[in-house]
Amino acid sequence: MGVSVVAAFTAVNRIDDFAYTPEQNIAHSMTALMAQNKGAGNNNRMQEGFRCGMVLEFIYGIFIFLVCFIFAKPLMCLFVQDEEVIMHGVTYLHLISIMYILPAFTNGIQGFFRGIGDLKITLISSLVNMAVQVIVAAPLVFSLHLGIEALPYSYLAGWIGMLVVELPLLIRTYEAYE
């Protein structure tokens, strides 16, 4: 994809790390709350904790979307000065920021399953996410020559694949705790 795209991807990965970390930490908190209340047999508190955690994930997902979308160029300028690199990074951030709500949801759902001790679902959905990303990225990069735009689209496909695996299992499992 070229030196400028690789440099842009390196910079946006730093921004992505800052964007995803709170989503992951909200999910970790949900995991602890769910596990403690499952152990105590308090299903109502488990459900309330999950709902509150998902609301926090949603609010944060919207917040980080706005920050990264509106301030894409200034964020890129924190890491690089080359205009071509900044341009590629801004393109990536504009695309990926719209999608930040999806990893917020997948992190929250994984927090639920970790909290109830069902780690095979988190493993399977994570493997689906990675596999779909690779399967979608390859033709976007090698056949359609999309460049840096291919990556957010492949992430989108991976998160959708993850949700396709997780949501039916979440609904079935969540209802069992009612």
UniProtKB/TrEMBL annotation:
The keyword Lyase does not apply. It holds the Pfam family MatE. It comes from the Bacteria. GO terms for cellular component: plasma membrane. Keywords: Membrane, Transmembrane, Transmembrane helix, Transport. The keyword RNA-binding does not apply. Coiled coil: none annotated. One of its GO terms (molecular function) is xenobiotic transmembrane transporter activity. The chain crosses the membrane at residues 54-72, 92-109, 121-141, 153-171. Multidrug efflux pump. Belongs to the multi antimicrobial extrusion (MATE) (TC 2.A.66.1) family. This is Probable multidrug resistance protein NorM.
